[in-house]
Amino acid sequence: MDFVWLLFSFKGRLNRARYLVVELALLLLWVVAWHKSTFLVSSPEALGWVAAIPMIWINTATTAKRLHDRNRSGWWAVAIFVVNRLSYLYYGLFFGLSFGVDISIAREMLLVMFAVALSLLQTWIIIELFFLMGTEGPNRFGPDPTRTAPGAAVASRLEPHGVPDFLVRRSGPLPPS
After folding, report:
1. pLDDT of amino acid 157
2. Could you tell me which residues are beta bridge partners of residue 135?
3. 145: which of 38, 45, 54, 65 is 20 to 30 A away, CA to CA?
């Protein structure tokens, strides 16, 4: 596997399984970096930025490739990044304002409505990136990443009688016909 392409390139497609592995590895790396910078380093902000910049790049690159697999433009990765950062900022402000600070009920209602809207948007992003399959076969961003060999013939799929389509879908290569 070409790890440079996987982690740093914005071209090509990435299936759900590899995307999930990269995202879990980034989460683990973030937790370890936060833990080490909090307890071992006198300047945790500097170490945080040194670790955050490549992690943001890797997250954006793999998200763009995952969006390519869904036949969407990779530029949506920037929008997803902005929504995530707005959510972190918003929830920090929301919980900071709600606990110990007296604000009007209208302002609280606006904050709650914004929280619901952000939560719904983030839920859709998670469904889109982690649960929905990529487009079958090649698309405008490249070949299907679930095929074992590039250019392999696409076998016709016979659906077993009485089994819904979503249960028949696969995450790996097609069985030989």
Report:
1. 46
2. none
3. 54
Q: How far apart are the first and last CA of the chain?
A: 27
Q: Is residue 20 scored above 80 in pLDDT?
A: yes
Do residues 37 and 88 make contact, with C-beta atoms less than 8 angstroms apart? no
**Tokens in use for 9?**
């390139």
Question: Is the pTM of the predicted complex or chain greater than 0.70?
Answer: no
Q: Which two tokens stand for residue 125?
A: 């992003």
% of the chain with per-residue pLDDT over 70: 67
pLDDT tens column, 128-148: 999 988 888 899 998 988 875
In whole angstroms, give the CA distance from residue 25 to residue 27. Answer: 5
Burial of 29: CB neighbours in 10 Å, binned 0-12, 13-18, 19+:
middle
Q: How far apart are CA 76 and CA 68, in angstroms?
A: 10
